[in-house]
Amino acid sequence: MFSSLVYVALGGALGASLRYLTGRWVVRLVGQGFPMAIITVNIVGSFLMGAFVVFAAQRGMTHLSPLVMTGFLGGFTTFSAFSLEAVTLFERGQFGAAASYVAISVIGSIAALMLGIWVMRGTLA
User: Fold this and answer.
1) Most buried among 14, 67, 91, 104, using CB within 10 Å?
2) Minimal CA–CA distance to 3: which of 61, 64, 78, 48?
């Protein structure tokens, strides 16, 4: 139990750090305004989650799930920040942007997870 907690903490620290750096990089690329940084990490993280689920299952590495899935990817992706960004757009009266943000984030993340599963199944087949 304690070792799993250490793995979650380590993965979370790494994932959160990478989310921060990715967010800064995306904002430099596209600027502020529409929350592309959070969309980016949620979609990329969902792809990685799908890929890892298949990889770990096929390679007998599910013991790394606390480190990778709960810790790293849990720290890297963030639907709490997603929720805040959606409400902020809504409160600003940017209803179309809020709806687009929610749709792109949810559909994009689910599609990326499915793509990660498909890519990894094809790679490991």
Assistant:
1) 67
2) 64
Question: Cα dihedral sign for 6, 8, 10, 12?
Answer: negative
For the chain, 125 residues long, give each residue's pLDDT as a single digit of tens: 889 999 999 999 999 999 999 999 999 999 988 999 999 999 999 999 999 999 999 999 999 999 999 999 999 998 878 998 999 999 999 999 999 999 999 999 999 999 999 999 999 98
Question: What are the tokens at 48?
Answer: 């990685």
Contact 72, 7 (CB under 8 A): no
Stated pTM of the model: 0.83
